[in-house]
Amino acid sequence: MERIIEPKTKKKGIGFAIALVLLLATMPSTTRYAKPDHILIAGQVTAYSSEVGQTDSTPFHTANGTRVERGVLANNCLSFGTRVEIDGEEFFVNDRMNKRYGCQDFDIWFEDTDEAIIYGKKLKVIKIYGNFTKTQVENLQRRRE
User: Fold this and answer.
1) What is the tens place of the pLDDT at every residue in 30-46?
2) What range does the domain containing 85 cover?
3) Residues 19, 26: Cα–Cα separation, whole Å
4) Which of 24, 37, 94, 116 makes the best surface tag, with the fewest CB within 10 Å?
5) If pLDDT is split at 50, 70 and 90, which confidence band does 108 have?
6) How large is the greatest C-alpha to C-alpha distance in the chain, in angstroms?
7) Which CATH number is 52's domain given?
């Protein structure tokens, strides 16, 4: 069974909020803290490329020491190697974002800076694979102050 966690954000688009309500309405309440193989959260997804202005002084290396490639995702709360699905595309957490970003923030690596700019910033439903405890789920939904 799938479950979705809505981030505690200050503003949301009405269309996104309606989609979340519809998803929540289709889920039985008994699955709220079951241990499925994945969870769904609402998250903010942005894009970055290998430029010193968007990264640190080693723009072609991720925080866990691997070289950037298609499918690299940055997030500050998930363990390196965590498999994540966004819009049906598979990513792996291999990088970190600036510490000001929270658990519901995700950054997709793009080879081309123009493509990253075109992607922009989007609210998405994020599928995160793994077994999570209730505490871990709560941490994923907690907004950084």
Assistant:
1) 444 445 688 889 999 99
2) 4-141
3) 11
4) 37
5) very high
6) 47
7) 2.40.40.10
* Single-letter residue type at 94: N
Q: Residue 93's closest CA among 120, 53, 129, 60?
A: 129
Mean pLDDT for 51-79 is 85
Amino acid at position 119, single letter: Y
Token duo for residue 40:
């769904």
- Three-state helix/strand/coil letters over the chain: CCCEECCCCCCCCHHHHHHHHHHHHCCCHHHCCCCCCEEEEEEEEEEECCCCCCCCCCCCECCCCCECCCCEEECCCCCCCCEEEECCEEEEEEECCCCCCCCCEEEEECCCHHHHHHHCCEEEEEEEECCCCHHHHHHHHCCCC
Residue 17, amino acid: A
Q: How far apart are CA 57 and CA 130, in angstroms?
A: 32
In total, how many domains does the chain have? 1
Helix (H) or strand (E) holding 125: strand 122-129
Please give the pLDDT value at position 137.
Answer: 78
Sign of CA dihedral 138, 125, 10, 120: positive
